[in-house]
Amino acid sequence: MKNRLLYFKSMKKITSILILIFILNSCAESVTEKIMRKSENNPVGKVLHLKDADIYYEVYGKGKPLFLLHGNGGSIDAFTKEIPELSKHFMVIAMDTRAQGKSTDTSTEPLSYRKFADDVKALSDYLHLKKINIFGWSDGGNTAIEFAIKYPKNLRKFITSGANVFPLGVGKEEVENMKKDLAQMVAENKPKNDIRLLQLMIDEPKISKEQLNKIKSKALIIAGDHDIILRSHTEYIAKEIPKATMKIYKNATHSIPIEHSEELNKDIEDFLK
């Protein structure tokens, strides 16, 4: 994570968010220990072995299954403020996306949100869950939308925070900055997966209006009033998904799960009733 902060110097807004995630990760061990003491279902980290990846996950609580999907370059630690509360009401499945956190990736093709959605499906099948709910933050929200498109029969409801359905959802300037950062990372021979994760944000997602129109699940589309995702883009997503509602959090950036965890937890609980 420290290295990722160095790579994205020119992306001031995104960098500030990565700094927040880094701070959260630095104290994650002590927070996780508190969760282990308080939760009825003590978390036990497990690994799902796939053909080209090992997916690390933790399960908390009982009830309707709720997957938590973190953002680009993050991990389960992003949800230390959500897991203790949400596990009182749901069976929470928190997973590290492939090539991130404690999950590995040995594939050679470019990373994609569709592949991430396949991993969610693989884990839900492994846990014998026929229908799930998803909360996805940032890139995790993109994965949630891809899951809704590809696996409609396996999704009950989903919530996204700071998602986008095409790269320009963050604005042309930010995309150009990412391209410059990518060129620098390649020139400096930075770690392969860090390069692939940045390339992912430049190339994807590529979700069409027609695909959004066909989503059958109910959705809650969230963003901050100071989000890196353009307001018009969030409005577009909410408008084109037939059963979607939108909420813009006040005095909020892209880091709603960190900055507004209490409000977010309540919104998730109410929406998934």
TrEMBL record:
Domain AB hydrolase-1: where?
A: 64-201
Q: Which InterPro entries match?
A: AB_hydrolase, AB_hydrolase_1, AB_hydrolase_fold
The Gene Ontology biological process annotation of the record reads: glycerolipid catabolic process
Q: Which Gene3D superfamilies match?
A: alpha/beta hydrolase (3.40.50.1820)
What residue stretch is flagged as signal peptide? Answer: none
Q: Name one GO molecular function term.
A: triacylglycerol lipase activity
> Matching SUPFAM superfamilies, A to Z?
alpha/beta-Hydrolases (SSF53474)
* Name of the protein in question: Pimeloyl-ACP methyl ester carboxylesterase
**What is the originating organism of this protein?**
Halpernia humi
